[in-house]
Amino acid sequence: MTTLTQSTTWKALQAHTSQLPHMRELFAQNPQRFDQMSVKACGLFLDYSKNRINNDTLELLFALAKEANLTDKIAAMFNGDVINNTEHRAVLHTALRSKAEQEIIAEGTNIVPEVQQTLAKMAGFVESVQSGQWKGYTGKAITDVVSIGIGGSFLGPKIVSQALRPYWHAGLNCHFVANVDATSICEKLKGLNAETTLFVMSSKSFGTQETLTNTLSAKDWFLAQGATQQDIAKHFVAVTSNVAKATEFGMDANNIFPMWDWVGGRYSLWSAIGLPIALLVGMDNFKALLDGAHQMDEHFANTPLPQNMPVIMAMLSVLYGNFHGSQSHVILTYDHYLRGLPAYFQQLDMESNGKSVTLNGTDVDYSTGPVIWGGEGTNGQHAYHQLLHQGTALIPADFIMPLQSHNPLGEHHDQLASNCFGQTQALMQGRTFEEALAELSNSKLDEQQKALIAKHKVMSGNKPSNTLLMDKLTPTTLGALIALYEHRTFVQGAIWQINSFDQWGVELGKQLGNDVLERIGADKDATELDSSSNALVNLYRQGKL
Ligand code: F6P
Q1: Measured between alpha carbons, how far is 436 from 454 in angstroms, rounded to an integer?
Q2: Per the omega criterion (within 30 degrees of 0), is the bond before 378 cis?
Q3: How far apart (Å, rounded) are the C-alpha atoms in residues 416 and 411?
Q4: Mind telling me the catalytic residues?
Q5: CATH number of 35-67+303-427+463-496
Q6: Domain 98-287 fold
Q7: Can you give the pTM of this predicted structure?
Q8: Which residue's alpha carbon is at the smallest distance from atom 9 of ligand 1?
Q9: In this structure, which residue's CA is closest to atom 1 in ligand 1?
Q10: Which of 10, 30, 66, 211: CA 20 to 30 A from 226?
């Protein structure tokens, strides 16, 4: 039993949440609700009024945050304390977007100079490639970048590049390879010209099977196109914290961009892992991305909890997960460029907070990280919104939308916005039986049929949502948005007293996978595993059912 669930505040929240009126009533009681439950920061605007809260709820949630010593924990992260207690590391992705004049000490060293040196190395390389000065082995400029990496070494570069498509440098294209399924790399290499292709191999550990295999296959492809071993240095660069392994692998020492142990993979896009982003959008826009995140860092570190955007969003998620039994959270991006963001937030949140022991190893007796999922609006309205409106699960939703489109065209953006706002309204107010019946008053159905259909049209409402707006999707607002969710994840982990920065849960699958790989390649069928695994391995070995 943890002290958290025994606390007075926790018990008060349990009692309080069960007696709160329907949101319809909360809006009717207080015409100022929107004004009092919205906050603006770093170019973002958060409307959190469509939540199952009143002022008492918020007071209790912020009290819970205070009892978790949240302010001290935030300071400890920014100060470079070793808060990743199982890997004995500081957590300093914030240092990656710090200003050159800052001093941030990690393990006794001011790390800002090496961050700045790496940014300068990136800038020189990006300029060289974009200007055409960097030539391939036949003297041609680079036209295509193939980014090879997985997890945080893939999602950040891929999704941020996708989100910033309006800012891409003309003449450069980028292809992302992550999965070890050969289809991924084969499809991406089709039609590319080795003479004008640059491979960026990104792996913090330089030990990830998928990335190493894909890089070796990329090298084979490159040499099969007529290039020689000496040409590798013109077409392969690496981003890693394991420079020795990269050099041993054959990467040219000058083409290795460093990163550091105090940057978690799912928090690393701000480091040289973001090199594909910078190659595509240029260093000025990459620095604007960093600056947006830095602005959110300053907001997070210096704003009192009740006005602190990441804290508000995190505590609302704690409210639903720990006091309303919700098990998942949906991210709905009403912007086509942001269509990949839910997948990015999946790794960020689920690999950080998918834990079940506290920092000191005590089993939790409360829910921790929810399932994060989602997609682009309005597509989801024609796929899973039925469940959001009339399903049995409570699934809090974040709606994210820029007020201005990069592609203004007729009524399109008006319709997008009206769908976005209409959905949050429908989730909140629902539809009563009486309203449903009234809507059928002119139908030709008999009274019994009307009552039946009306029953099926009832929507309980009281379904919570946040609406996050920005003027326009730019590198700066995108940086602030992603940093917002990073800090939201941090706050939840602080409340749950878990380590959000290790990922021991991914190790066993990798180990067993390596064992299975050996059995697949063995000279006899597998017999030592469980009957299912033996059978599956042997079916694969025979290659047919
Ligand atoms: O999924 C485990 C993980 O270590 C992630 O945390 C990380 O982003 C990914 O694998 C890739 O790791 P690396 O960058 O070391 O190849």
Answers
A1: 5
A2: yes
A3: 9
A4: 351, 382, 510
A5: 3.40.50.10490
A6: Rossmann fold (3.40.50)
A7: 0.98
A8: 151
A9: 151
A10: 211
Ligand 1 binding pocket, CB closer than 6 Å = 150-153, 203-205, 208, 211, 265-266, 351, 503, 506
pLDDT band at 1 (very low <50, low <70, confident <90, very high): low
CA of 314 to the centre of ligand 1 (A): 25
Enter the tokens of residue 257: 């961009």
Smallest CA-to-CA distance from 417 within 406, 431, 401, 428 is with 401
pLDDT digits (tens, 9 = 90+) for 262-300: 999 999 999 999 999 999 999 999 999 999 999 999 999
Give yes or no for a contact between 202 and 157, defined as CB atoms under 8 angstroms apart. Answer: yes
DSSP codes joined into one string, 174-233: EEEE--SSHHHHHHHHTT--GGGEEEEEE-SSS--HHHHHHHHHHHHHHHHTT--GGGHH
> What's the 379 CA to ligand 1 centre distance in angstroms?
30
**521 alpha carbon to ligand 1 midpoint, in Å?**
26
* Closest atom of ligand 1 relative to the 351 alpha carbon: 6
Enumerate long-range contacts of 187-191, CB under 8 Å, 24 or more apart: 188/146, 189/146, 189/218, 189/221
pLDDT tens profile 7-51 = 999 999 999 999 999 999 999 999 999 999 999 999 999 999 999
Q: Which atom of ligand 1 is nearest to the CA of 202?
A: 14
